[in-house]
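Today's session is about reading a structure prediction critically. Students often jump straight to the picture, but the first step is always the sequence itself: look for stretches that repeat, for charged clusters, for runs of hydrophobic residues. Only then move on to the predicted structure, which in these notes is written as discrete structure tokens rather than atom positions. Here is the chain we will use throughout the hour.
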Amino acid sequence: MNLPNKLTLFRIFLIPVFIVVMLLNIPNKYLIACIIFIVGSITDAMDGHIARKYNLVTDFGKFMDPLADKLLVISALTCMIEAGLVASWMVIIIVSRELTVSILRAIAAADGKVIAASSGGKLKTISQMVSIIVLLLGAQFANQTLLLIGWVCILVATLLTLYSGGEYLYKNKELFMNSK
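Below is the predicted structure for this chain, in token form.
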């Protein structure tokens, strides 16, 4: 197993650790969860970069890397609903988009096509990750300014999520038009 795939598996391992920290009533839990999330986010950037730079792209990585990203973000946002840091409707929109794009990619793959990540999709992911980090730091330090900035960021991330989902559907509408 190559290094990018190990980083992807490590990111998946971090997900239950993040969830447990969020569920515990321990001092500095939001800071600890934030650090775990940042480490997971960094591995996301690293594994793709290393895989492309050293020609270590694998079918496992093509499938598991985006899945690990989605699981990390969705797990964080779901825990943050319970903590009162994000609105459930925002998370429903984000999860719905992720499921829709994943299904679209599966339909394309069945036809032998690959749907690459769009710039809108990449911007969406970055905005979601930044939002989560800012909100966790705001909660840790009970800083209303950071919480407000985080809420604005997650609102922007939700809007970018809608936009990028629409972008994927529009650019790949032939998959629906030609389906039997």
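Discussion point for the tutorial: The chain has one domain: 3-173.
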